[in-house]
């Protein structure tokens, strides 16, 4: 049910934005139900309102299930839990060095990812002159030899043709996922045969890409 629900269409119909609270969603849903309910409009009721009301209720129930499962609405963020207040007469002790989270763990993870991309580029022949950066055979390459195009550029950015595994490593788990499209809040990435074919990077949740949309293909030379 969660995979089929169009949460962003639900927000638009209710006049909300991703990141709204559960109380705001409930209030907007009740107002919209009152507008579409046939008992309120009587003889002037639109027959299509019953179908709209059914779709609205299904999407609202899916959003409520998502909130119960993940502690947030689709497209929102987790709220940081409050630290417990120390009891009277006791002084909270600072964390010792062993209990503190290791600093730089994200930096090492990023360096390991970049190193893996560099290794993939080197093994495909980009640095030894046998393969161009775009994956085509460089001048002097033996006839019949094949080349593998890189799935991300050397800066660790998603490009057209990036495979799904690299996208997951760079962006993490999407809010909604299907073979043709992954949604990351208001941003999304489209796939064709497991390769990136299009994307939209919103300022509210920017992706690891160089621009909001992929560059337009260059016209073929005549």
UniProtKB/TrEMBL annotation:
Residues 9-89 form the J domain. SUPFAM superfamilies: Chaperone J-domain. Pfam families: DnaJ. The keyword Protease does not apply. It comes from the Bacteria. Keywords: Chaperone. This is J domain-containing protein.
């Amino acid at each position: 049910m969660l995979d089929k629900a169009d949460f962003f269409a639900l927000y638009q119909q209710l006049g909300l934005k991703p990141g709204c609270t559960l109380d705001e969603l409930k209030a907007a849903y009740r107002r919209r139900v009152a507008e579409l309910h046939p008992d309120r409009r009587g003889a002037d009721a639109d027959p299509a309102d019953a179908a709209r009301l059914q779709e609205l209720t299904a999407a609202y129930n899916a959003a409520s299930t998502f909130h119960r499962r993940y502690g947030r609405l689709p497209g929102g963020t987790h709220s940081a839990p409050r630290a417990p207040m120390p009891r009277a007469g006791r002084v909270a002790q600072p964390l010792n060095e062993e209990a503190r989270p290791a600093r730089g763990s994200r930096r090492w993870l990023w360096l390991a990812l970049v190193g893996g991309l560099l290794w993939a580029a080197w093994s495909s022949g980009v640095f030894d002159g046998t393969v161009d950066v775009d994956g085509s055979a460089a001048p002097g390459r033996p006839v019949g030899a094949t080349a593998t195009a890189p799935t991300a550029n050397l800066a660790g950015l998603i490009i057209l043709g990036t495979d799904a595994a690299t996208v997951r490593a760079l962006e993490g788990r999407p809010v909604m996922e299907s073979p043709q499209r992954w949604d990351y809040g208001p941003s999304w990435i489209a796939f064709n045969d497991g390769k990136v074919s299009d994307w939209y990077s919103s300022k509210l949740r920017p992706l690891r890409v160089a621009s909001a949309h992929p560059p337009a293909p260059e016209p073929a030379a005549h």
